[in-house]
Amino acid sequence: MATASGRPPAGYRHNQYYDPPPGGAHTGRMDKQELGAFLRSRRERLRPQDAGLPSGPRRRTPGLRREEVSVLAHISTEYYIRLEQGRAPRPSGDVLAAIAGALRLTDAESDHLHVLAGTAPNRTGLHRRDVRPSILALLERMPQTAGFVMSAACEVLAWNNLAAALTEDFAPLTPHERNLARRAFPGPQYADETLYGISDAADFRLGIVMQLHTTLARYPTDPAVTGLVGELRETSPDFARLWERHDVQPAPTLTKTFRHPTVGEVTVDCDTLTLTDRDQHLVLYSAPPGSPGAETLALLNVLGAQASDYLH
């Protein structure tokens, strides 16, 4: 559609930028501000050569220019600028795919982009905290594996005896205290405390931030989620700094070493299984039979939860 001059009429927008009619493919709420911040963070981390562009003269700001992203995505520069500024209408799936390709997004980042744009399947308003009975039974049937279930908001919902012995006994704690995000970012008054003595505490903290970015996009109106993120951004400078990176894909963790106060170091394999029906995670710490880690886990299984004296 164009005027005789070849220009689109005033107020015209290409139909790829329109919201769909009722009953269309879009199923969720578009978080314009978070979408814009996420796009900006991904653009600024990308070097011109990463996108097959010449680096050219010295740049005043890091990453690609907005104009370059729009060219790579085959969309108008004005529309992309408005997206980053949180002023644009909802993009179509094709436009999101083009932007994801231009910014070299990973599968996890592309999924997150669709969630922020409201084009991914929407979840209920609150994240689930009830654990499936079969998972509870499974935890008890694994005496040589430390296991626990974590909610989308990082709360430990269920655990077995070995998990309590390896980390801490969660039974006497309130749900507020059982939240691993609060354990990871306890505030400046607890800055000297260790996180269960784990060897990869920095990676664990980054993974927590990534998880909460994903969770907030899925449950933007859940007060437990928004309250937790707001609390940590206010009380923890480290959390606030990592939050502004807008990373959403944690690096895989294959092994983890705990420096336990009673039995010393124990190295375990770490596996995290997603329980998709309730948006929860089953975390398992195990060790190959006959290994030092397996022997230490067996000792912890005998000693029980009293073996751990981590207090926060």
Concise synopsis of the structure shown:
By secondary structure, this protein is of the alpha+beta class. It contains twelve helices and five strands.
Written overview of the protein:
With 312 residues, the chain is an alpha+beta fold. The chain has helices at 32-45, 66-73, 77-84, 93-102, 107-117, 133-140, 161-166, 180-184, 201-218, 223-235, 237-243, 292-303; strands at 146-150, 156-159, 255-260, 264-275, 280-286. Strands 2-1-5-4-3 form a five-stranded antiparallel β-sheet. A hairpin with a 3-residue loop joins strand 3 and strand 4 (264-275). Helix 2 (66-73) packs across helix 3 (77-84), helix 2 (66-73) packs across helix 4 and helix 10 (223-235) crosses helix 11. The radius of gyration is 23 Å and the shape is elongated. The protein starts with 31 loop residues before the first helix and ends in a 9-residue tail after the last helix. It comes from Streptomyces spiralis. Residues 63-110 form the HTH cro/C1-type domain. This is Transcriptional regulator. InterPro entries: Cro/C1-type_HTH, Lambda_DNA-bd_dom_sf, MLTR_LBD.
